[in-house]
Amino acid sequence: VLIALFDDVPLDRGPTYIAPESIREVSRTLAASPDGVDFVNRSTAVQVMTRCEERVALTGKVGDLYVMHPFMLHSSSPNPSGSIRWMSNPVIYTHEPLRFDAPASPVEELVVRALRD
Q: Exposed, middle or buried: residue 97 (CB in 10 Å: 0-12, 13-18, 19+)?
């Protein structure tokens, strides 16, 4: 998941927030539910978020780029400044399905580590 800032986003302009621990929690939730999990459902996401203590604001300057693990839960926040935040959140797809039996990428390796720890 990418977040590209096309404008400065200081803390007082409602940055995107991430939950770094969510990679572990999403990995474990999916592993425990082979039929799938609806993370778009707010109650499901809230249930996972209750197991995450840390929240990090993605502040930055125009041109900054955040590259996040696809299991990283993230959310917008209120923008009290009244000015528009310009950013892009393009989707990147893999050419092949992820393989957790023989991880070959950092994305796969983080999931394997989350399930092992």
A: exposed
DSSP 85: P
List the beta bridge partners of residue 20: none
Please state, in angstroms and rounded to a whole number, the distance separating the CA atoms of residues 48 and 19. Answer: 10
Instruction: For residues 3 and 39, give the distance between their C-alpha atoms in angstroms, rounded to a whole number.
Output: 19
> Of 22, 6, 30, whose CA–CA distance to 75 is shortest?
22
Name every residue whose Cβ is closer than 8 Å to that of residue 93 and which is 6 or more positions away in sequence.
none
Quick check: 7 and 97 in contact, CB under 8 A? no
CB neighbours of residue 100 within 10 Å: 13
Helix (H) or strand (E) holding 66: strand 65-67
Average pLDDT of the chain to the nearest whole number: 91
pLDDT digits (tens, 9 = 90+) for 52-101: 999 999 999 999 999 999 999 988 898 998 888 888 888 888 888 988 99
Sequence-distant (6+) residues with CB within 8 A of 13 are: 79, 81, 83, 85
